[in-house]
């Protein structure tokens, strides 16, 4: 099990948090996604380390932007 | 057919707009709901004038606040 924390820009409300959690949570091997709306921090727990582009793609799919 | 415009506080993104449109749109007799995210203006077209408390209740249900 591995954890990585990213920063997502553009989330403004609980719906945004839900959209990011849903898209990132659908990536293969992801067990948990925690989001801090205030800071934009997205902590992803997964079986294996995830390719950054996979996470970025899911965030884009949700309508936001991975910035760190 | 009648139109009334309200002001809703707290909407920050397109998801918020969607939530308000959905809840207000479910009120009996409502034909159309238009929302301006920038101003918080919610224009409701309905068969008959709606009780203000019905609209306020739907907005609250969506998670926002009717302020005018």
From TrEMBL, chains A, B:
UniProt keyword Metal-binding, yes or no: yes
GO MF annotations in UniProt: copper ion binding
Alphabetic keyword roster: Copper, Metal-binding
Any Pfam family hit: HMA
Record domain HMA: where: 2-67
PROSITE patterns per record: HMA_1, HMA_2
Coiled coil region boundaries: none
A biological-process GO annotation: copper ion transport
NCBIfam families: copper ion binding protein (TIGR00003)
UniProt name for this protein: Copper ion binding protein
The organism's taxonomic lineage, starting at the top: Bacteria, Bacillati, Actinomycetota, Actinomycetes, Pseudonocardiales
